[in-house]
From TrEMBL:
CDD domains to which the protein is assigned, alphabetical: WD40
Gene name as annotated: Wdr86
Residue stretches in coiled coil: none
Organism: Psilopogon haemacephalus
Protein name, as recorded: WDR86 protein
Keywords associated with the record: Repeat, WD repeat
Amino acid sequence: MGNSGSAVKVCTDHQGGINWLSLSPDGQRLLTGSEDGTARLWSTADSQCHGHFQGHESYITFCHLENEAAFTCSADHTIRKWDVMTGQCLAIYRGHTSIVNRILVAKDYLFSGSYDRTARCWSVDKEKQIQEFRGHRNCVLTLAHYSSRDVLEEDEEEEEEEEKVSRDLLVTGSTDCTVKVWWVSSGRCYQTLLGHTGAVLCLILDAPNRELFSGSTDYTIRTWNIVTGEQLKVFKEHQGSVICLELVNRHLYSGSADRTVKCWLVDTGERIQTYKAHKHSVSTLKYHAGILFTGSGDACARAFNSRSGVLQKIFRGHKFIINCIQVHDELLYTASHDGTLRIWDIRGICKRNKRRLKKERSAQGRGSQKGSLSRLFNNKVGCMVQQENGE
């Protein structure tokens, strides 16, 4: 438990720290965005660099990869779209007046959030700004997107004709301590979610359940009804800023500056696990097949058994903070401020975890049969045999 792992490959092509790592929907490529002002495209088949995107005049803050196009945003106030096959810059989106922190691609829309206190919506193909969302009193750090069709009943929908045409909504989190929900078509603010007393650093959306989760420098996670704007629960046990969130099967994982990750049951608000061993802030999270992978300011990535909280492996080799991680085809990818992309073989962990899950399911199956007999036998005296819920 907790043994150290060595990277199967170290990619050192960037000349500056890597701020973000994006995996294409088909899993064939990775995109890295760097402090050196460039982005690089990597094949997951051979781990080689197959594209070098140059043109930004300052460092890249964030990147997003589709199957055929790549998007990068920068401290030079612009967003760029790239052809993944040729490396050609296809579009430059200009309009922000400060650092662009985050981008999000949804349908034919490109959304962006900036230090200029605005979020903006662009036409992906026409290189044109469609909408500006103005109302935050400080910089916009994080974004989420959904359609009202996913969450609203017909009789709940807005009556304005222009908003009937496009029911898309944008969610923005800001250092002004608020979360805002906007109609994309009109730019009008639909909801302002008040409650946080610190900057909102991360958002995660569960549209089918009408829920939004926000993590903040006030040490809390809050969950909101995105139709009514009602604050549903406050998760309070962290002792530092909440930096990253991951939602899997109604389990919420939160990484914090207090050097821990916590797992919460969304439906009850109960904290059911704490993952320790980090020597610095937890900067990024990724859940994969019962394993929780973390990246930290202590330059290590870690793998935990998500249910028991047991540390299964430490991945050492980076020199500075790990900013982003991805998992694909039993390989772990870690991108760091030291400028390297490291690739780790996690087949051993995955196999052990699959065997463990198989044994647990088998035991639960046997337990279910025994439980049925026990309930039948004890029915007259009102006894119920409780079975543990699986993740």
